[in-house]
């Protein structure tokens, strides 16, 4: 059921424990990431605009950043060339921001993980990769992006 599937999100953060007016954005991004947006809005329709904004301004930008690199390297079969191109792409991103090294490491990890996982292909490869990730690992990716974006 919808309420049971949202139950795992009740970990002491977000609208489930704070009355809904003072929750953090990562809570909404987490709902989007695990594809529970529709379910969440069934119970909390007043947050539709906030969910849409989080999807557009947070999650969408994260996906865009990680897809930029993945799309450059996804079709490279040679392992050495794949590694070199990934490092080059990460380096180009990393030099644009003082915290780019942190996000660069997460992008590098993502590319190598996705290359190993054959199901990580197609137009939603990055989204599928993130949705399958455990929350603590996803939080590292999210925090790295926040440092990159706003550091």
Tell me the radius of gyration.
17 Å
How does the helix and strand content classify structurally?
A: mainly alpha
What portion of residues is helical? Answer: 55-70%
Report the average pLDDT across residues.
76
Q: Provide the succession of SSEs.
A: HHHHHHHH
Overall strand count: 0
Distance N to C terminus: 40 Å
Shape: elongated
If you had to describe this structure to a student in words, what would you say it looks like?
The protein is 70% helix and 0% strand. The chain has helices spanning 2-7, 25-33, 37-43, 48-73, 79-94, 100-116, 125-132, 135-150. Helix 2 (25-33) crosses helix 4 and helix 5 (79-94) packs antiparallel against helix 6. The N and C termini lie far apart (40 Å). By secondary structure, it is mainly alpha-helical. The chain has eight helices and no strands. Residues 10-15 have low confidence and may be disordered.
What does the secondary structure layout of this molecule look like, with pairings?
Layout: H1 2-7, H2 25-33, H3 37-43, H4 48-73, H5 79-94, H6 100-116, H7 125-132, H8 135-150
Helix pairs in contact: 2-4, 4-5, 5-6, 6-8
Keywords:
single chain, 151 residues, mainly alpha
Question: Short description, anyone?
Answer:
This protein has 151 residues and is an all-alpha fold. Helices cover 70% and strands 0% of the residues. The chain has 8 helices and no strands.
């Amino acid at each position: 059921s919808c309420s049971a599937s949202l139950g795992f999100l009740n970990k002491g953060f977000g609208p489930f424990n704070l009355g809904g007016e003072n929750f953090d954005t990562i809570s909404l991004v987490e709902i989007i990431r695990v594809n529970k947006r529709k379910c969440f809005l069934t119970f909390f329709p007043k947050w539709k605009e906030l969910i849409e904004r989080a999807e557009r301004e947070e999650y969408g930008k994260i996906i865009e950043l990680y897809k930029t690199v993945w799309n450059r390297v996804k079709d490279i079969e040679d392992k050495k060339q794949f590694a070199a191109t990934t490092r080059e792409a990460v380096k180009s991103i990393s030099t644009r921001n003082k915290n780019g090294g942190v996000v660069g490491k997460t992008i590098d990890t993502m590319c190598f993980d996705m290359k190993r996982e054959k199901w990580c292909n197609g137009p939603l490869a990055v989204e599928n990769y993130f949705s399958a990730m455990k929350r603590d690992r996803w939080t590292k990716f999210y925090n790295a992006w926040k440092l990159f974006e706003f550091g």
